[in-house]
């Protein structure tokens, strides 16, 4: 069954809910048991870790189970868990595997809040980190120490869009007994299959393309069989879960994810190609664009691209001209997050927080999320802003 068909027919069996095609929303904290035998039997099933059992609302309901199982199936993992946000997914996946005295390797292009967590919370817990150049590939082997327990990758990076050689990194990590975690949000479960490339745990900000409508926060953690119990026990022990209404919104968004991503990809590539031809632009950082950094690895390992990429202007445009360019955009609204139906823009400067890999560009940079609007309208919006940039 293709992913498109699975999203329409494979997420649940309507007969489980009297013919209803979407699982109903279960608002539940307390779950009661028929008798002690029932309670003890469910407890044994819960400890088995591979069974969906109604035990307590925080540990899952039929609403939660349906979405978790669908996401694990799509990504090719063993099981999935839902947590409160994308950042919670990242931090939980790390903390499940580390203890005081451990050392971890983290991509220098990692999501900013994940980096902040590593540099502050993990540092206070006596977990040290080395931020590695995301283009290292197999050369990452030189960075492992006896205490290295985990590699946290993000491919592509969420601002600078380096594509990592994940199979080579995973091979090096496993030789040293380390677990590989990847933030797979950009690709969604459709465009990159992390477990086929050696990854142990995949995390997503479900807030982005899975929800798809900018109205719910959610994190997803999917694991291979070997990592499942470790992650599950940590998530349950720390009280992580996702609220039922957000789960329902994510489940509804999942149904149309393939269709939405087809539009995001098509429009994103068209606009990236248009931008690459602009005289004001030094580099378009879109892995799916021929000639862009990382394109060969993207072609080898990925089956598609989402609508998020970055643009670097040529040097010479001052701060005020750049501010006028950003402020003049009408359809690309200035805002955090991405993955929804609406287009967004966000300026960034990676030199402020990336010591491991030198940023090779001197011009101003901004990230675009290409939404579901007509690409002709989005191009017209950018064209008008470029006129403002050059003072016309």
UniProtKB/TrEMBL annotation:
CDD domains: CGS_like. Keywords: Lyase, Pyridoxal phosphate. It comes from the Bacteria. The modification N6-(pyridoxal phosphate)lysine is found at residue 208. GO terms for molecular function: cysteine-S-conjugate beta-lyase activity; pyridoxal phosphate binding. Pathway: Amino-acid biosynthesis; L-methionine biosynthesis via de novo pathway; L-homocysteine from L-cystathionine: step 1/1. GO terms for biological process: L-cysteine catabolic process to pyruvate; transsulfuration. It is an enzyme of class 4 (lyase). Its cofactor is pyridoxal 5'-phosphate. InterPro entries: Cys/Met-Metab_PyrdxlP-dep_enz, Cys_b_lyase_bac, Cys_met_metab_PP, PyrdxlP-dep_Trfase, PyrdxlP-dep_Trfase_major, PyrdxlP-dep_Trfase_small. Its EC number is 4.4.1.8. It catalyses: L,L-cystathionine + H2O = L-homocysteine + pyruvate + NH4(+); an S-substituted L-cysteine + H2O = a thiol + pyruvate + NH4(+). Gene3D superfamilies: Aspartate Aminotransferase, domain 1, Type I PLP-dependent aspartate aminotransferase-like (Major domain). SUPFAM superfamilies: PLP-dependent transferases. The keyword Transmembrane helix does not apply. Belongs to the trans-sulfuration enzymes family. This is Cystathionine beta-lyase.
């Amino acid at each position: 069954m293709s992913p498109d068909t699975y999203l329409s027919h494979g997420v649940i069996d309507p007969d489980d809910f009297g013919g209803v095609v979407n699982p109903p929303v279960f608002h539940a904290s307390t779950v009661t048991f028929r008798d002690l035998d029932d309670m003890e039997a469910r407890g044994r099933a819960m400890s088995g870790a591979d069974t969906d059992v109604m035990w307590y609302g925080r540990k899952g309901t039929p609403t939660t189970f349906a979405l978790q199982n669908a996401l694990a199936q799509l990504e090719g993992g063993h099981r999935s868990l839902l947590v409160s946000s994308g950042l919670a997914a990242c931090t939980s996946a790390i903390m499940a595997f580390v203890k005081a005295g451990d050392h971890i390797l983290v991509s220098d292009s990692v999501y900013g809040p994940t980096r902040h967590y590593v540099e502050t919370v993990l540092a206070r817990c006596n977990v040290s980190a080395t931020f590695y150049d995301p283009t290292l590939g197999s050369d990452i082997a030189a960075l492992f120490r006896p205490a290295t327990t985990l590699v946290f990758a993000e491919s592509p990076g969420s601002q600078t869009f380096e594509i990592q050689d994940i199979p080579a990194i995973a091979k090096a990590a496993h030789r040293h007994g380390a677990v590989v975690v990847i933030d797979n949000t950009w690709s969604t479960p459709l465009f990159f299959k992390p477990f086929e490339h050696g990854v142990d745990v995949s995390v997503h900000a479900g807030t982005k393309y899975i929800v798809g409508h900018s109205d719910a926060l959610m994190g997803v953690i999917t694991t291979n069989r070997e990592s499942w119990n470790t992650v599950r026990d940590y998530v349950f022990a720390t009280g992580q879960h996702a609220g039922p209404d957000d789960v329902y919104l994510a489940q509804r968004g999942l149904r149309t994810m393939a269709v939405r991503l087809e539009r995001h990809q098509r429009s994103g590539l068209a606009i990236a190609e248009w931008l690459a031809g602009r005289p004001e632009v030094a580099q378009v950082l879109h892995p799916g664009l021929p000639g862009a950094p990382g394109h060969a690895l993207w072609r080898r390992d990925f089956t598609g691209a989402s609508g998020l990429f970055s643009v670097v202007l040529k040097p010479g445009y001052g701060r005020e001209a750049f501010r006028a360019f950003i402020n003049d955009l009408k359809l690309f609204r200035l805002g955090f997050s991405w993955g929804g139906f609406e287009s967004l823009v966000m300026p960034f400067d990676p030199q402020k927080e990336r010591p491991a890999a030198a940023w090779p560009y001197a011009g101003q940079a901004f990230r675009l999320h290409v939404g579901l609007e007509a690409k002709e309208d989005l191009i017209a919006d950018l064209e008008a802003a470029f006129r403002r940039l050059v003072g016309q």
